[in-house]
Amino acid sequence: MADAVSMPSARQTPAQFIVDISTSEVYLSSLNTLDQLDPSRNYFLRGLLPEWNYRFVFGAITPVAIEVAEKHKASPQTAALMGEAMLGAFFLESGTSKAEALKSCLHLEGDGPVRRIISFAGVDGRVRAHAGRPDAAWSGPLEEGKGSGQLKVSRWFSESQVYTSSVEMRALPLAHNLEDYITRSDQIQAFVKLQSEIIKDVPVSIAGCMIQALPDASVNDTVRAADWLEQAWPHLRTGMGPPAGESVPEIHSTPLKVLSVGQFQSYCDCSSERVRNVLRLLGREDMDALIQEQGQIEVHCEFCGKRYAYGVGELDAIFTSGAAE
Ligand SMILES: [Zn+2]
Questions:
Q1: How far does residue 169's CA lie from ligand 1's centre (Å)?
Q2: 272 C-alpha to ligand 1 centroid (Å)
Q3: Distance 275 CA to ligand 1 centre (A)
Q4: What DSSP string runs through 44-87?
């Protein structure tokens, strides 16, 4: 493409994607030569498959998942599962069509050795996660870590307006659980891919893709979009196009209209003010009892590990400064 330029990025430029400036379309065939769809990197792409009235979200989150896992001293498998759960939360966040949510939470409560994973994502790529038993290890496939149980999704449309719903979480890969949720609860046709690769105890690739029907997608559009994802995913996942000299398969000339690009970022929004609000909700009586027993009230953020401590004097201030801020 003669008039190709570097992708004008939103906040941060994740990679030099090549776009046709006249149509702002990205062609996978042009990405092949650049080797830029590399799942070991950190970036997301959001956009449309305009031919079939579908939207897509692609994310590679490996470095951020490793960062989060180190904070929690997580096993490589739990790290990969947390990475997939953060991608899942990001897909749910990116798939809200009515109004843009401030953040989305994916909560997996299962009978697998990890027991629980809670992940958050904002539309700007800010993510966080924690696991019930981060050091859990198991010998089977990744989904054994979570097992079966309940999958709960919460979306915040303002600080106080939260919508929560849940579905049964079957003992299947997380991508299938998410498809179940989106199809049943959001009632939108969606297809999800999530894949992690661990080599010598290091997660080297944690990536995923979701495609989701727009309101005017026909049954035929759905068949073709789903077929495209099946064919494109091995290429997207490995970041590799066809070997040099081979003819470019049809999937590589499918236009993707990219609407936004960005990078994932490990981020926690806990604050002393939030902790104080929680203490107020728990009530003065219980807090007084706790402080008598322990001398002070200590709260640890499960996501970032930050510690908040309050003594008697601070407790007085918390409960006399009135209702929740
Ligand atoms: Zn925190």
A1: 27
A2: 10
A3: 10
A4: EEEEEEGGGTEEEEEEEEHHHHHHHHHHTT--HHHHHHHHHHHH
pLDDT in tens, 52-86: 999 989 898 999 999 999 999 999 999 999 999 99
CATH superfamily of this structure's domain 273-320: HSP33 redox switch-like (3.90.1280.10)
CA of 177 to the centre of ligand 1 (A): 27
Question: Which structure tokens are listed for 39?
Answer: 């799942």
CATH numeric code, 7-98+171-266: 3.55.30.10
Q: How far apart are CA 127 and CA 120, in angstroms?
A: 5
- Fold: same for 7-98+171-266 and 273-320: no
Find where tokens 């926690």 sit.
268
Domain residue ranges in the chain: 7-98+171-266, 273-320
- How far away, in angstroms, is 105 Cα from ligand 1 center? 15
State yes or no: pLDDT of 32 exceeds 70. no
What the block records as the tokens of 65 is 């998942």
State the pLDDT at residue 254.
63
For 142-200, what is each residue's pLDDT tens digit?
999 999 999 999 999 887 889 999 999 999 999 999 999 999 988 899 999 999 999 99
What's the predicted TM-score (pTM) here? 0.83
